[in-house]
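Example 468.
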Amino acid sequence: MTRYHGGMNAPTTRFAPSPSGLLHLGNARTALFSLLAALPDGRFLLRIEDSDRARVSPVFEQALRADLAWLGFAAHIDEAAIWRQSERGAVYDDFHQQLMRGNLVYPCFCSESELAAERASLRARGLPPRYSGRCAALDPAAALARVAAGEAAVWRFRVPPGQELTFHDVVRGPQHVATNLLGDFVVRRAHGEAMFFFANALDDALSGVTLVLRGEDHLANTSRQILILRALGLPVPEYGHLPLVLSADGVPLSKRDGAGSLAALREEGFLPLAVINYLARLGAVVGSERLLPLTELGQAFDRRRIGHAPARYDREQLLHWQRVAMAAAPVSEWLPWVAGCVPEADQSRFVEAVRPNALFPEDFRRWAGIVYGERRTLDEDARAAIVAAGADFFRVAVAHLDAGGAPGDLPAVLKAAGHGGRRLFHGLRAALTGRLAGPELKDILALMPRALVARRLLECGSTDAQDL
Ligand code: GLU
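Predicted structure in complex with glutamic acid:
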């Protein structure tokens, strides 16, 4: 994959999922915006944030790789540049050492219950709960001796007091955080593991990421991450925090409920192109209303036009894009769906006839069943239309076929016999397909085997419609 030409202003972005569940539309949107922001000349990285062993699983990692491939991202991901946090512990250790040497971190021996009591007392006084800094004042040599002797300690970052930290969030605008509100935060756990946001910030800086687009649930970490990167003399990327995607009921989508997962949409038959076109416009303005492939979406995408209000998952909109994407796909894309259930000579014509009514690829097979084979089932409207057409209608139709007439002439013949108007089209459509909506009647008459047309009309004429 030779696509990295990163110009001066071309950003390097990344998607950094934790494989702890199935990707949902909100995660997919974060990935998509990150990729689009990097297209066409920038660099897009994938990083697997799998250091929290208790929560992650290789199954979810495989699933997310499959999802990204399905969305069409694989061609934009440099496999050789994928980092996995579980393999980078030594790097985090090195930078931790650097912080230790600079006396920028200190060991904290406070117990969970002491910390809980401290938080409770701050809350009771109406103050934000943050660490008091008690262990910051310990004599460094004595504190280190305690650690060396095996006493459990987390490592806290010395937050510089009395400063105002300012950064510009690409989505939310200027952000100001008073360092006094942060409290000295933990960067390393007692058993030596780097805290998530420490590893995350280091990896961004070390892999040359210049623009981080991620969910707004990470906004609170950002000021801490900036402090860490500055303390280590590492470059600070630009950040943009995307509002959450809410379900139709207004609750944030979650990795843990399968509904709204990409996997579920794929199962249902949604096309990746429909999904990315929908997502690209979910809370962002794309300068085109046309169905666009990824690269063109990248050109139309402007990171300054990402909205800051929560976006709501709207299935109707997704279905709209599905319809557009289904209609836009070349006939060849649907041929495999009809192989084996539509005679070869008819396949292209069949696809053309059915596609205006096909919302999912599976619909081609369903219609193949109706037009070529299995006994059709009648829905209520079709049953009523057959009853309304009446026995004479079907007698005329069957007589026409018996006399060797072409199925395509049935509408004209029935009309001439006084069965014109709505009854004509509804009656024929209902008898042949079992429903009133579907492909053009003339196409059905042209495609359906003559013997089947005759049989279905005969059934309608000779039986009480209730028994069909
Ligand atoms: N691994 C984090 C997550 O899955 C992403 C953090 C980030 O994008 O900075 O939520």
